[in-house]
């Protein structure tokens, strides 16, 4: 049973009334609901998990538990995510070709959903201020096979200098007091206090001040938290409306009666009932709040001729040589390429021997700490090219022939440990490696039929004693 602070309980008894508050407290003592999303970008996405209970309104989302060792996870075919947390990215209604920013992105659940909606067109900037958490963000975006993401490790001030009035849509899943995660993460209770709620509100306003600078006129801000606190939800939305003349948008994509709405009496502007609230007693998932706000004006084409010229001159120095293209083609020509990387010979660049197709080419990115730019194809070595893990996950989007489908659970686990595996095949050289037909790595087959392991060391699973 959760040991909820007295001040917390008193607060919500006053806000909700005793009966509704007791329902909330009781629900917070129930077991958390787990769910997962299936990746529609992958060619083979016939997962082994139970799909009998769908998450309301979210396509390809089901209740159930995922293991990090399963081929579904390792191949980027599924993403384990709290069901309530799926909604902010879904209501963003991202369209292919848009420029989208996920400002507080780690560990990547919302970024993977935004990226898949872009379908390889447009741009996703996925930013995480924490240097430790950005590693997981990169791993998850790579696993999902997203090729048009710029992953950055910056604060909102640095981003606003580089991307003024740049984005069609910005998702801010703001750092918050975490009240909605108490039952999933009881440690969050220890940090809670009325003073901490106020600290979070101040931090949210600081982040949002920079976020609105990056929205195009007519652009949309999706604001979300995982807290119940009106100070961080309805009051923040009211602050945005008053200070930036933003309009709260109706959310028409939600039909489930498990989703509640914002409380107008907890804010100070009209239309707060258009915002969404997710309560544990609604039995959908953890606590969540979400709203869509539109900037004044209409979306139009920004003038970026100056930045294009500056960036073109600089990036010419990163172009591939004729010989380098031949080394790369010798490997890539063996595989079917998704359309977004089929023109790699025109777009690929090389930096410190790392070959990549940049997610963005018309913008001067000076001043940003870039973790990954677009799709990393692999590494150039002495007169040869070694394909990378990100490429393997992206190639899983289309049907492939040069694939070794491991024949047993034992071989699969051995490969995840970093071991070589003996295979019976006529294939030689670089191949894609799959289990249950789900592609998750590159390998290389020598003349003796041994599959050399190219699964990244940082992702390998240690053997149990």
Automatic annotation (TrEMBL):
Residues forming the catalytic site: 226 (nucleophile)
Keywords: Cytoplasm, Methyltransferase, RNA-binding, S-adenosyl-L-methionine, Transferase
CDD domains reported in the protein's UniProt record: AdoMet_MTases, RsmF_methylt_CTD1
Entry-linked Pfam families: Methyltr_RsmB-F, Methyltr_RsmF_N, Methyltranf_PUA, RsmF_methylt_CI
Record-stated family: Belongs to the class I-like SAM-binding methyltransferase superfamily. RsmB/NOP family.
NCBIfam families assigned to the protein according to its UniProt record, in alphabetical order: nop2p
Protein's recorded name: NOL1 NOP2 sun family protein
């Amino acid at each position: 049973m959760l040991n909820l602070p007295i001040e917390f309980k008193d607060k919500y008894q006053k806000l909700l009334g005793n009966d509704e508050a007791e329902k909330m407290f009781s629900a917070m003592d129930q077991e958390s609901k787990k769910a997962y999303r299936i990746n529609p970008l992958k060619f083979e996405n016939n997962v082994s998990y139970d799909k009998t209970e769908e998450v309301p309104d979210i396509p390809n989302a089901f209740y159930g538990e995922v293991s990090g060792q399963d081929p579904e996870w390792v191949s980027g075919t599924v993403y384990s995510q709290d069901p309530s947390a799926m909604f902010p990215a879904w209501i963003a209604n991202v369209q292919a070709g848009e420029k989208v920013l996920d400002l507080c992105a780690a560990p990547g659940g919302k970024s993977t959903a935004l990226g898949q909606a872009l379908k390889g067109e447009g741009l996703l900037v996925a930013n995480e201020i924490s240097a430790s958490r950005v590693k997981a963000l990169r791993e998850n975006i790579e696993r999902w096979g997203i090729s048009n993401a710029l992953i950055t490790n910056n604060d909102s001030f640095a981003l606003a200098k580089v991307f003024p009035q740049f984005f069609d849509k910005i998702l801010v899943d703001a750092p918050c007091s975490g009240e909605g995660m108490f039952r999933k993460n009881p440690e969050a209770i220890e940090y809670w206090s009325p003073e901490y709620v106020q600290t979070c509100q101040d931090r949210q306003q600081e982040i949002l001040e920079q976020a609105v600078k990056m929205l195009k006129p007519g652009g949309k801000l999706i604001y979300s938290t995982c807290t119940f606190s009106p100070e961080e939800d309805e009051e923040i939305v009211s602050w945005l409306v008053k200070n930036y003349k933003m309009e709260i948008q109706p959310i028409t994509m939600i039909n489930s009666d498990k989703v509640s709405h914002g409380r107008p009496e907890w804010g100070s502007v009209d239309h707060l009932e258009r915002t969404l609230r997710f309560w544990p007693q609604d039995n959908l998932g953890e606590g969540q709040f979400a709203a869509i706000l539109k900037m004044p004006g209409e979306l139009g084409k920004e003038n970026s001729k100056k930045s294009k010229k500056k960036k073109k001159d600089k990036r010419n120095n990163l172009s591939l040589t004729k010989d380098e293209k031949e080394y790369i083609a010798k490997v890539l020509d063996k595989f079917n390429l998704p359309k977004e990387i089929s023109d790699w010979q025109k777009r690929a660049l090389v930096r410190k021997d790392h070959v990549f197709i940049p997610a963005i080419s018309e913008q001067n990115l000076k001043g940003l700490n870039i973790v990954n730019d677009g799709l990393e194809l692999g590494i150039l070595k002495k007169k040869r090219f070694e394909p990378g893990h990100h490429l393997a996950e992206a190639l899983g989007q289309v049907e492939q022939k040069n694939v070794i489908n491991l024949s047993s659970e034992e071989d699969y686990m051995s490969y995840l440990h970093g071991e070589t595996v003996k295979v019976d095949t006529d294939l030689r050289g670089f191949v894609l490696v799959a289990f249950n037909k789900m592609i998750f790595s590159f390998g290389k087959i020598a003349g003796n039929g041994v599959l050399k392991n190219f699964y990244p060391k940082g992702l390998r699973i240690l053997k149990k004693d």
